[in-house]
Amino acid sequence: MTESSLAQAGTISPLAVVQTSTIGDNVTIGEFAIVRAGASIGSNVVIHPHAVIAEGVVLGDNVEVFPGAFIGREPKGAGATARQPVFERAVRIGANTSVGPHAVIYYDVEIGESTLIGDGASIREQCRIGERCIISRYVTINYNTTIGARTKIMDLTHITGNCVIGADVFVSILVGSTNDNAIGQHGYSDEHVVGPTVRDGAMIGAGAMLLPAVVVGERSIVGAGSVVTKSIEDDTLVMGTPARPVRRLERAP
Amino acid sequence: MTESSLAQAGTISPLAVVQTSTIGDNVTIGEFAIVRAGASIGSNVVIHPHAVIAEGVVLGDNVEVFPGAFIGREPKGAGATARQPVFERAVRIGANTSVGPHAVIYYDVEIGESTLIGDGASIREQCRIGERCIISRYVTINYNTTIGARTKIMDLTHITGNCVIGADVFVSILVGSTNDNAIGQHGYSDEHVVGPTVRDGAMIGAGAMLLPAVVVGERSIVGAGSVVTKSIEDDTLVMGTPARPVRRLERAP
Amino acid sequence: MTESSLAQAGTISPLAVVQTSTIGDNVTIGEFAIVRAGASIGSNVVIHPHAVIAEGVVLGDNVEVFPGAFIGREPKGAGATARQPVFERAVRIGANTSVGPHAVIYYDVEIGESTLIGDGASIREQCRIGERCIISRYVTINYNTTIGARTKIMDLTHITGNCVIGADVFVSILVGSTNDNAIGQHGYSDEHVVGPTVRDGAMIGAGAMLLPAVVVGERSIVGAGSVVTKSIEDDTLVMGTPARPVRRLERAP
User: For all residues of chain C together, what is the average pLDDT?
Assistant: First the structure.
């Protein structure tokens, strides 16, 4: 193809499909990217090739969307799912946030400013994610979950539905969380399907599992590989399977 | 690009590459999707942008294929793999099934009706998956594995090769399974490379590991974080590392 | 679209964007793939549809790049990351190596010959991977990590930054490794952020976690589900949480 097909900074490739007219200044859109009518694109946004931006998606200034990312996925509630999805057809991505290659952001998600969404991270409907967070590679986040500012969730971790994670939390790699002791046998209801609450400043070690409805207290630490079956007070180090308190943690002065 | 490039319901985008003529009524194919000659597409199928449907793939009526999904991947047996892949150049996806964004379905796979394949799930050759299943996000399934009807396998779980999973099974998140105690040191043979068998109605908790050739009995439950080194009888709750029986489970009346 | 849009062996699709002129003989480039100016493509290379090959990427002879793979990703160091990325704008992929669908290879990565990179594997900057390795599906490898020849890393495993993995190592599925006991609280420095060292011939069982700076000795084996908190001598089997020596292993004659 010709030189005119280059996706250069500040240019919209003629090989992109751009159906919206709500586009800021100095926007770059790569080849074979798709921006649907009804999307809103801020200034200095970079949309790499093969990304798909659906109707109702709002990208703040300086947002970068890497190749193959898909923002504005409709949740699919087929016969096989217990919970029927509820959602608005909107996504809001804050300024300076970046969305990694092949990441999937469902409808009805809000992400704050200056957050990094890693390669292939998948965030379902009704989630709210704060500013200056890191949601790392292949992290999957389920429906109706809130994550506070400056929280970091490392690679290959799963955050369950109906979960609340505070600010300044660190969740290491390969951490799991669950929300249903009945494992789906009783169908879906908001009352008995409750994910963990992880309070501000807590740290969850690599490979730990958090069982339904447990609370991890402020600044508490869960050791690597622990299985947390009961709630943990503030400023407490726990370890083991099931996790038991090891000692109180002193707060930094 | 022009209005004619819209991927509207029931229309085939002029920006798609459609090489087959076996296409049902009311099919939608998005921009930059590829449907090879020799693929067969049922009625009311929706193929999102950037999906690739290879030769020999059969999509039933009402199937939905999300952006970037790749159906009909050839397994690649380079020098580095012990087992040389065996496969037919065919994939059959049942009616009403959906295939998530960036999912990869290898050749020689059959998937039943009304099943959900999650974002980025990857299913290798010689697998058979039942109807009304959920194979969730980033689940990877190895070669020659069978999964029964209505079974749910949650995010980031790995199902090994030469494995048999029954019907109505629930496998939680981040569960692992393995099939080779010699860890590849003796090369590949069907006799000593045997994955677990998980019988109908069993439940495997979050983060559990199932070692080669173990059998999990009908309706038995494996606690979160357990390492299963020995077979488990029917209707038994096991926990721990290594997993030991905790109690018998009463069957629902 | 017309017959001319077929991506046949040895042909470059007119629907691809090919901006480099450094291309060997008998190269196949699929529809909607992008090969930037300044990339170098060996003979008999196959680049599937929707792949992106950035400037400065060198693909050896017979390399195969599957759909949606992205080679030459720039690391993104936003406000949220402690460590500012350091990298050269180059990637070198050895002859006969294949890169799976949706895999992401960052800049400043070298991969040896005849290695398999699995579906969605993500390899960050400053990594060096040997020949005849398998880096399997959704494995994520962090910055500045070295992996020796013939080493196999199975699905959904995370290899941390500043990590050294020897030759002929086997790392099973869902294995985690970490590099920072302070969990990011002290900011980034090379001195206190140190990943594990896994020496030649070692084997790490499914779901094991390796904590910062531990050394796994030559030919040692870590049992499934273990949490390794201390270094392990050569030829030693360890198990448990925390992992303790179980017995010495005899070396093969």
Answer: 93
Residues in B closer than 8 angstroms to C207, CB to CB, are 176, 207, 209, 227
- Residues of chain B in contact with residue A16, where contact means CB-CB under 8 angstroms, are 1
Q: Is B237 on the interface with C (CB under 8 A)?
A: no
Rounded to the nearest angstrom, the minimum Cα separation between A100 and chain C is 9
Contact A113, A94 (CB under 8 A): yes
Q: Which residues of C touch B118 (CB under 8 A)?
A: none
Per-residue pLDDT, averaged over A104-124, amounts to 98
Cβ contacts of B229 within 8 Å, gap of 6 or more: B211, B214, B242, B243
Say if the ipTM goes beyond 0.90. yes
Which residues lie across from B109 on neighbouring strands? B91, B127
| Residues B44 and B140 placed together within one structural domain of the fold | yes
Is the CB of A76 less than 8 angstroms away from the CB of B102? no
CATH number, position A3: 2.160.10.10
Q: Are residues B58 and B20 in the same domain?
A: yes
Strand order across the A134-135 sheet: A28-29, A46-47, A64-65, A98-99, A116-117, A134-135, A152-153, A170-171, A203-204, A221-222, A236-239, A244-248
- C62 and C98 both lie in a single domain: yes
Judge whether residue C117 has pLDDT over 80.
yes
pLDDT one-digit tens code per residue, C134-157: 999 999 999 999 999 999 999 999
pLDDT band at A246 (very low <50, low <70, confident <90, very high): very high
CB contact under 8 A, A211 and B203: no
Provide the pLDDT for residue C86: 80
One domain, residues A125 and A56: yes
Q: Which residue range(s) make up the domain with A189?
A: 158-253
Percent composition of chain A: helix, strand, coil (DSSP 3-state, to 5):
0, 30, 65
Closest residue, chain C, to B174 (C-alpha): C174
Residue entry with tokens 């500043």: C162
Residue position matching structure tokens 């400065």: C56
Instruction: Inform me whether the C-beta atom of residue A60 falls under 8 Å from chain C C-beta atoms.
Output: no
Domain boundary among C93, C124, C144: C144
Give CA–CA dist C200/C195, Å, rounded: 16
Contacts of B54 in chain C (CB under 8 A): none
pTM above 0.90, yes or no: yes
Total domains in chain C come to 2
Test C50 with B68 for CB contact under 8 angstroms.
yes
Calculate the average pLDDT of chain B.
Answer: 93
Query: Which chain C residues touch B241 with a CB distance below 8 Å?
Result: 225, 240-241
* Interface check A133 vs C, CB under 8 A: yes
Number of H helices, E strands in chain A: 0, 33
Subunits with 3+ C-beta pairs closer than 8 A to B: A, C
User: Is residue A214 over pLDDT 90?
Assistant: yes
Q: Identify which of B5, B116, B206 has the shortest CB distance to residue A78.
A: B116
**Cβ–Cβ < 8 Å for B27, B41:** yes
Among A173-182, C57-66, C170-179, C210-219, the range scoring the smallest mean pLDDT is: A173-182
